[in-house]
Amino acid sequence: xTNRLTFPMLTEDDxxxxxxxxxxxHRHPELSGEEKETARRVxxxxxxxxxxxIMTGMGGHGVAAIYDSGAPGPTxxxxxxxxxxxxxxxxxxxxxxxxxxxAHLCGHDGHTAILLGLARILSRSRPTSGxxxxxxxxxxxxxxxxxxxxxxxxxxxxxxxxAFSLHNISGIxxxxxxxxxxxxxxxxxxxxxxxxGSTAHASRPADxxxxxxxxxxxxxxxxxxxxxxxxxxxxxxxxxxxxxxxxESYGVAPGEAKLLVTLRTFADEEMDTLxxxxxxxxxxxxxxxxxxxxxxYEDTFLACTNDAQATAMLLQGIERAGVRHESQTxxxxxxxxxxxxxxxxxxxxxxxLGSGRDWPGLHTPTYDFRDELIPVGIGIFAETLxxxxxxx
Length: 392
Description:
Blueprint lengths: L11 H16 L8 H11 L6 E6 L3 E7 L6 E7 L26 H17 L6 E7 L7 H7 L10 E9 L6 E3 L2 E4 L1 E10 L3 E2 L10 H12 L12 E10 L6 E2 L2 E10 L5 H18 L3 E10 L2 E3 L1 H13 L4 E3 L11 H5 L3 E10 L16 H18 L2
Parallel strand pairs: 3-4, 3-5, 5-16, 6-15
Antiparallel strand pairs: 1-2, 2-4, 6-16, 7-14, 8-12, 8-13, 9-11, 10-12
């Protein structure tokens, strides 16, 4: 019988330092594509763990730390995210954001601390074969980061055989891991709409072509473009996220309006159908009101799917770490770009880790990552790594 591989546990001092780092990172959020200082802080924390190589500037400000056994074997990647959100934090925690209008309200600061904890374990016990890549990925929130990392000319040097990630989530009991094979996140993309007419004096609005009626009709009509189906094949959703019209003036009837909308579908192949409905509605409404229209797409997220073998490996890690778990039977409506690592050739899987049923939700202004999840996440990743290495 093969001896079970184990890695050294972290000390209380380790966990205190990782928690302090996480809270300091929370004070200094940087948005997608701007994570230069965050990356520097990560490299500073990585240095004492003596990785065999550190690649910086991956896909922007990404950092990859490589721990090599020197023996043949698999390349196993664990990923966290670096970026924060353009939201004003309203919580009263002592370590709240010091940057107006920006905050870590998705827990990427906590995910980063978990990977840094795994780095400390690897500094004390290298993998027995192959190598481990800790990928601190930029720009997850706008969907650009994973694709940019994979497109980096250096990525083939660290291309993984296995890729794993986790995300904290509210609405699930604290410390419960949720995992399943197959679809785990819906596809989504952002769409912008610009309607253009002509301005007029506010006392003579009929002299112009105002977009007011058009956007008033479009906002509920766009959201009705969603299928209304339960989450599963055929599901789609449209959410209006921003609307603006005209200048801030009392004397000018507006001549232009802008809408931002998010489209979501269960699967990638269903997105084209939703886009066609969306574009047809926008153009018909613009024509009806005598307006010119332009539209385009940004923030594209492909659907995220858990590989069955990678899911089984991650489940072994969860069970070996003594973490309770439940099956994920349907994907999250929220999007994730982690799935691109799987599409690039790795066997990949991601789990959700519960913050508590009543914990503030992700992207809400009072959210904060729950620090007690740091050792839970580290334990799952360390045991998943051990299970992977045992299987080769």
